[in-house]
Amino acid sequence: MSDSTTSKMITLKSSEGVVFVVPETVVMQSKTICHVIEDFSTITFIPLPNVRAPTLAMVIEYCKKHVEAADVSKIEMTEDGSRPMPASTRISDKELRNWDMQFVDVDKDMLYDLIMAADYLHIEGLLDAACQKVADMITGKNPEMIRQIFNIKNDFTPKEEEEISCENLWAFG
To answer: What's the CATH superfamily of 9-139?
Structure first.
């Protein structure tokens, strides 16, 4: 695992003004932040007006876990270099995917915020996991059930609904 004491620290500021000081290796999981740092190499403070503090805290947790997983997977020998590390200390891709899916098992409001933040910050893995969670939530559901899940008002007339059903029979069959 990377030593955060030797890594350059980046300050992220949420939409409410909450400040998070995070190792550069962690924030580099975001392609958006990566581009900002590449374009302005001396920058150490990045405001994120589109990300609320609770969401930013979760995004940082996600990024830390993925940096740790990448660091652990690179280590093949013990510290003294004598033998391979036991498999139990390595994080497999499957274990990391399972962790990702548990990580996004949050209420709908936070899930929405995570999707928006992951998209804004361009964190592909988090966006994929959060969108997969939404897909899992609606799989096998009819339109009315989906409306209930997401509290969506049905503004179609019965005639419009029938037309849509006929045009998209493949989806409702």
So the answer is: Potassium Channel Kv1.1; Chain A (3.30.710.10)
Residues facing 9 on adjacent strands? 23
From first to last of its 173 residues, the chain has per-residue pLDDT tens of 444 446 799 999 999 999 999 999 999 999 999 999 999 988 889 999 999 999 999 999 999 999 999 876 555 545 555 555 555 456 788 999 999 999 999 999 999 999 999 999 999 999 999 999 999 999 999 888 999 999 999 999 999 988 988 888 887 65
pTM score over 0.70: yes
Torsion 48-49-50-51 (CA) sign: positive
Domain residue ranges in the chain: 9-139, 142-173
